[in-house]
Amino acid sequence: MAREHKRPYKVFRVGGRSFPVYFEYDEQLKKSYPAYPDFEKNPEYTGEGNPFATAEQESCIHCQPVSPGQPPPGDCGGCGWFHREQTPYDPIGICMCEARRGNKTDA
Q1: pTM of the model
Q2: Distant-in-sequence contacts of 61-65, Cβ < 8 A, 24+ apart
Q3: Are 57 and 75 in contact (CB under 8 A)?
Q4: Could you tell me how far CA 49 lies from the centroid of its own chain?
């Protein structure tokens, strides 16, 4: 993917931080798509140590269903620990699971 194919899509504000999302162009598909931050590859944390996550990230070993009796979710967006600040459809949120808390960062 060539860098010149990036163009701004939207800025998401979560946990007191801003995350710009850009359109990236896929030469093979001949289509643009919004490229969200890769928090699995490059973790980022709130000032309290909670990790940021995207709804589409694959769920971790600590995932829990939103409702009791449901099967474990396949992604973070379906996990009971995933906190969205603005709307129920926010693509970027905060994982509130205590087991996943990490290093505090300067926000």
Answers
A1: 0.83
A2: 62/97, 62/99, 62/100
A3: yes
A4: 15
**Residue 104 CA: distances (Å) to CA of 48, 49, 50, 87, 107:** 6, 4, 8, 25, 9
> CA torsion, points 37, 35, 40, 92, in degrees to nearest 10?
60
pLDDT 10s digits, 24-57: 999 999 999 999 999 999 999 999 999 999 999 9
At 82 the three-state DSSP class reads strand
Q: Which of 10, 26, 23, 15 is nearest to 53 (CA)?
A: 15
> CA-based Rg of the chain, rounded to a whole angstrom?
15
In percent, the amount of the chain with pLDDT more than 70 equals 91
